[in-house]
Sequence to fold (260 residues):
Amino acid sequence: MAFQFLKYDVQQGVATITLNRPEVYNALNDEITFELQEALKTAAKEDTVRVIILTGEGKAFCSGQDLKAEPVGKKRSFLDSLHKRYNPIIRAMRNLPKPILCRLNGVAAGAGCSLALACDMIIASEEATLIEVFINIGLVPDSGSSYFLPRAVGYAKAFELCAMGSKVKAAEALTLGLVNKVVPAAQLDTAVSECANYFAKAPTKSIGIIKKMLNKSATSTLDDMLDYEAYCQETAGATHDHQEGVKAFLEKRKPEFLGK
Fold:
């Protein structure tokens, strides 16, 4: 599939989606947000795709909304922009029944920070930074940041990061629990590939169910989750990969999961 502002590549079960506007640090114009929606739909439908890597071309991951792409002399509706462009992306990422890894190669600012936080795991270069830059132009966090951030770092730190626009370097992000792993820039591709290769051979349906369970737990009671766990376990127990896992255990060998 050909995109103008994205690269989409599938190799051995791994779909890599690369934001490809390096000349503006992969800032988000209308076209790239609609292309990203389409790329996520494609990855969700393709049976051969078992894990997605989201990254940016060049020095940056994503610098957020492209302010220079704003229509001249015309006031943009933030409501329409979020409902049509950004919110569908975040919902698609969280509802995608496959893991999404963020290859955080550089700055993730504003909506770009939200995109990173919406991923299931973040593997960051030592040179990467995250910043909720909205306050610097008199705006508030959007694209899911107000949901993901306090759940990751607590209210007080989330308030500081959003209200002061504090820049979080990779090492601090790891300490705060915002990212899963930090490696030297030269080792980023290797670290991301190792993680992606694990998921490409993992029981994909069970991982998709895990995503649903953890998403639901944020707004559920213990009793709700106990019932939902029972329902999900019944679903997972009916998969091919569960049968293969048990068989491999009994035969004392490594399981060969098919993602089915």
The longest strand covers residues 6-11. The domain at 204-250 is CATH 1.10.12 (Lyase 2-enoyl-coa Hydratase; Chain  A, domain 2). The mean pLDDT is 95.
